[in-house]
């Protein structure tokens, strides 16, 4: 027999309703039978004289009925706890088949790089393949909606990032709400961004860049991954606080070749997507967007050192459809956090210029709410709307 409870499907497991029917039928049989000795382990011992004295037959039947009713109530009380048991069994055996991780960004992007690392760590810990599926488009909304509509069984999860939170303020006609419809599972890493310029631009520091931009208003092209993406919003905040005007050039594909060739002159780019080009001296790094300097790059200044108060940090995490069982979410969270404590994953993240970020699902939810509040103000102040 297969369980009818949603999210279970285990053979040999039955619904609480079926159990109750069986238990009450059993109690009914006991009621109609002549009680002798212990009643089905009920703890009640009813001793019937043999033969029963005349006139006591009605009392005997009433006593037997009371015993069988008490037994039925005890069995029913035990059955009431049954619906929770299939879920626990399900979580204990999860995952029993490959898990699909939707990456709402193109292959080779920073979210894709981190998602593939996360999937490998989850696979190593949980013993099943975590299969990446890139579903980019509409500023990550296409891939996100796939997860929103998926069954909340732990077999479809989302590689989510700050852009998912930004979209909650940018788009007003979405058929879903990220903060409501995606359950926070785990954080993986913070995402420092870095101000990059083309090598042909005659500046080497943030103050020189700001001075050059003020002397050449509207002549510096500023690339981003699209309107409303983190690279756009971070650049917008930088322009506002630095008092400069750059020409925004949104891209749907990889803009790094155009930055290298000089067709665009600047970008605020995710660190994992930047390091190979910085190390190869194909682009010039001016500063990081974190509040303090990164331990991995102590010689690289922060924007905050020259534009006081500027801080813009992305992040990489994992989400799941709302109503995904809590114990499955906790199991995924524990697998990620345990991996982040290991030397090899830490070294891999350090090589990408990011740092491990450990949070419980509840803390991740609070963090998302705070991010929505912070960046929502920036988006509303710029009057940005995308629909």
Write a brief structural summary:
This protein has helices at 16-32, 57-80, 84-93, 110-126, 141-149, 162-170, 178-181, 206-215, 230-242, 256-261, 275-279, 326-340, 343-351, 361-381, and strands at 37-38, 45-46, 99-103, 130-134, 156-161, 182-198, 221-224, 247-250, 266-270, 283-288, 313-321.
Commentary on this structure:
This protein is α/β, with parallel strands linked by helices. The protein folds into three domains: 16-82, no CATH class; 97-190 and 319-381, D-Maltodextrin-Binding Protein, domain 2 (3-Layer(aba) Sandwich); 191-313, Periplasmic binding protein-like II (D-Maltodextrin-Binding Protein, domain 2), CATH 3.40.190. 44% of the residues lie in helices and 17% in strands. The protein contains 14 helices and eleven strands. The strands form two sheets. Strands 3, 4, 5, 6, 7, 8, 9, 10 and 11 form a nine-stranded mixed sheet that branches. Strands 1-2 form a two-stranded antiparallel sheet. A hairpin with a 6-residue loop joins strand 1 (37-38) and strand 2. Helix 1 packs antiparallel against helix 2 and helix 6 packs across helix 14 (361-381). The protein is globular. It starts with 15 loop residues before the first helix and ends in a 6-residue tail after the last helix.
């Amino acid at each position: 027999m297969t369980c009818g409870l949603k999210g279970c499907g285990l053979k040999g497991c039955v619904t609480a309703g079926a159990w109750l029917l069986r238990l009450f039928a059993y109690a009914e049989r006991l009621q109609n039978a002549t009680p002798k000795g212990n009643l089905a382990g009920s703890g009640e011992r009813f001793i019937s004289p043999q033969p029963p004295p005349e006139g006591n037959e009605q009392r005997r039947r009433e006593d037997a009925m009371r015993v069988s009713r008490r037994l039925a109530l005890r069995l029913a009380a035990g059955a009431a706890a049954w619906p929770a048991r299939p879920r626990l069994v399900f979580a204990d055996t999860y995952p029993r088949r490959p898990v699909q991780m939707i990456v709402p960004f193109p292959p080779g992007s920073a979210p894709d790089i981190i998602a593939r690392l996360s999937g490998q760590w989850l696979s190593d810990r949980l013993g099943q393949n975590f299969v990446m599926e890139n579903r980019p488009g509409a500023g990550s909304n296409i891939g996100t909606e796939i997860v929103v509509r998926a069954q909340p069984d732990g077999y479809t999860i989302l590689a989510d990032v700050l852009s998912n939170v930004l979209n909650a303020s940018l788009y007003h006609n979405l058929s879903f709400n990220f903060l409501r419809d995606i359950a926070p599972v785990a954080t993986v890493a913070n995402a420092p961004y870095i101000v990059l310029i083309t090598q042909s631009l005659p500046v080497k520091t943030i103050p020189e860049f700001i001075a050059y931009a003020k002397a050449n208003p509207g002549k510096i092209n500023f690339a981003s991954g699209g309107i409303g993406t983190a690279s756009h919003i971070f650049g917008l905040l930088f322009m506002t606080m630095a008092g400069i005007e750059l020409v925004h050039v949104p891209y749907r594909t990889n803009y790094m070749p155009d930055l290298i060739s000089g067709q665009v002159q600047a970008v605020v780019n995710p660190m994992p997507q930047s390091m190979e080009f910085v190390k190869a001296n194909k682009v010039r790094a001016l500063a990081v967007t974190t509040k303090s300097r990164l331990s991995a790059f102590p010689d690289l200044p922060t924007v905050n050192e020259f534009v006081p108060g500027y801080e813009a940090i992305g992040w990489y995490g994992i989400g799941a459809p709302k109503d995904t069982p809590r114990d499955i979410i906790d199991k995924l969270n524990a697998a990620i956090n345990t991996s982040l404590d290991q030397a090899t994953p830490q070294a891999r993240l350090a090589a990408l210029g990011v740092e491990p970020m450990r949070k419980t699902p509840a803390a991740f939810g609070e963090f998302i709410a705070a991010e929505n509040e912070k960046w929502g103000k920036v988006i509303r102040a710029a009057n940005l709307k995308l629909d």
